[in-house]
Predict the 3D structure of the following.
Amino acid sequence: MALEMKFACQTCDAGLAADGPAFICSHECTFCAPCAEDPHRRVCPNCGGELVLRPRRLAK
């Protein structure tokens, strides 16, 4: 099962690079670092799950 890499924050629509920082929940909701911290406080607004740092994929 592969992680679906989303390329935009679900709150502010900021672009997210595959090799850059992003936060996800267990349902793969995806947020940029500023939105994950404030306003969400590392809690997913969709499911209430913890937002954790997404693994990075190396740029090709």
